Amino acid sequence: MRDAYHEELDSIGDDLVEMTRLVGSAIGRATTAILDADLKLAESVIAADHKVDNLQHDLEARAITLLARQQPVATDLRIVVTSLRMSADLERSGDLAQHVAKLARLRFPERAVPQDLHATILEMGQLAQRLMAKAAEVIITKDVDLALQLEQDDDEMDTLHRALFQHLMDDRWKHGIETAVDVTLLGRYYERFADHAVSVAKRVVYLVTGEHADEIQPAGQVEGA
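Given the sequence above, the corresponding structure tokens read:
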């Protein structure tokens, strides 16, 4: 009976990794769709979001069943509760990738991103995908130091986000209000996607240590530095 219980806990972890894989792929494909005005690819991203939703719903149902039947305590309880929270982060990440794809569909056959911002949006999309891949690695390895590094990695996304706004506020902006709104939304989608990847990593820190990530100092960092 206990073997089946721990197998169920392991399967919840496997589902979380699968969710990270799906949403990481989604943000990468959505980025291509928005930059290339690829309607077929955008539609595939939008349609595939149900897989993430279904995984979350299934994970929630199994986690609640475990809570009711097994009444886990200590580490096992942290696993179940933290997994529920991570699944919510990942489901929201999938929604954000879908938002990017829906914007591509809305503006088709035009391109939502002007050529002079193409490189910035591409970099944001690639970084979002890398952050989610690292979050998956953190879930698999339970590596606290790697998890803590994600927040530092997210600084790069914040820098790109600020650069995007600086471009929008430049007096030389010539692409109109509609495009400015589109680009503002895109920047927000990528920035929030990255935040969810960081949140997943922070929840793994809590799962492993019982402490919140903000209370732990990354390895090699000198206190007061």
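The two ends are 50 Å apart (CA to CA). Try to locate this feature in the token string yourself.
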